[in-house]
């Protein structure tokens, strides 16, 4: 380990720099230092800006911003973030709970050459699997490089999130950027394009080339020097055309498939011993007495110590003995090992919001989410679209004047209904693409409710008065093609199914189900229409299903219609009408249940959440909150994360995130509202890959999840 240059700070916030991780003291993307946290005595890894860009104000802002964003990376192969420098710090930095660890160049130096092929395969499979998960959550790493890859005894960790974005602004002709490992930079990004998932695959391929050859380039000579088993796969990863590169999940499978079933990627003895020597050289120490440091106020307040951090801090002095006795440290080569699943937050403590947006006025309906990218919001003042990942406003219009709920059409547009017409509006720009005026209620029928939409086709209810507005109403269901701006079909709506604009229709793959609107005390019925033709398929009564519970029904896998009635969850076969199962609840299920996979989740008025198997009706688990619902009118809403791993239970005082596998508590949250909502916990109003949206009054929050 080389001593620090005098010009470099020896203290950053609560951290004292005690060594360097950079091989030969140099790094192409950012500087990584070994530091000790005076508050805990732990040894950590600090990432600092590249020295050539440390004085650039724009770069410092972007570097810190990407450090904050790196908290969003989930899974065991992302380096856990402990702290990020505050916005007023002279030099930005990010602190990781990764020690002992060697950047890939330092590991090659310790081994005195390229790593063995099994180790490279294990490294690539693990990181490709991690990239696949992050891409599925809408995140692009944009910083994969040898220096950003830390080798640890239990597997690799990636630092450097967003370094490509931090090092250069988007724009044509950017060329090579300082602070970026040049040979890992994809050709399209050298030309000024934005980082993309395909760019991560290129960078991964370049990094694996380096690990297998020791050469910091991807030229033909380097590719020829690759082990034969890696040559073809890495060549595809390094394709000039981003569209020709494989998906990271495919890369992980290829790396696993070429290995023998029992093969385990291993750290060579020399690398394992280097980790042991590092741990012995920088052991944890007792925390120093609390004292004020010039930059400490700029640091993010430290979260509670995680179990993983305690283990690292407590065992770092003994790692040398453990690794020395074992000789090698094994990694799972499958790329799907758990790694360290702990985060820097304690179990039970909610994650920090990714962003917070004040809508400015009362929302008129639940925000609508489009493909995990856009949030559509209608308030008393305007209709707006936000970027789901950043919370930034894309556009806002105050002249749409919708008279009823907006409806997503499923093709990048939405419907904004007016009194005598409806507009089809672009989600990307907020511009009106077309106006339909034939349903004006004068010359033609009037629309009184939109039922749903899919791929540009929407269904709505109309009525037309006979004799100039007096006499019998003519009710119909209309299927409308928004792209062709024409009706596909129109079907009469029988009297029992005619409502007042409060119909909760269910949209299945082949049919549209409309509930009865009568007052039958014994049963509720449904009218089924063919989605494509409007042909009546059947009408059927469901015994024990009350009309007033229509808003609390959903269709679950296996053609199951699930209903909540008083103190009972019931599952009916949609087509046959036969009751398949029932589950008694302690309290009244007043909110709408939700389904994911083969489970239905519902919360009752006693704040007990139930997980019910849709096939058998058996209760997988139930959990009663410590903060029960005290108000009889409170709706016990339930939601499930996009991945299905987390169930959200809303009580009078908080939102609880439960593990979908067993109902155990993950965290609690009560986000601050505004005005009359300041004491309320908020409501879960949407989920997307890696994100849950919570609305409290006029404040919308995005929280990381799973």
From TrEMBL:
Name the InterPro entries on file: Kinase-like_dom_sf, PQQ_b-propeller_rpt, PQQ_rpt_dom, Prot_kinase_dom, Quinoprotein_ADH-like_sf, WD40/YVTN_repeat-like_dom_sf
Highest taxon of source: Bacteria
Pfam families for this protein: PQQ_2
The segment(s) forming the Protein kinase domain are 15-257
> What PANTHER family does the annotation carry?
CELL SURFACE PROTEIN, OUTER MEMBRANE PROTEIN ASSEMBLY FACTOR BAMB
Q: What is this protein called?
A: Protein kinase domain-containing protein
| Species the sequence originates in | Streptomyces javensis
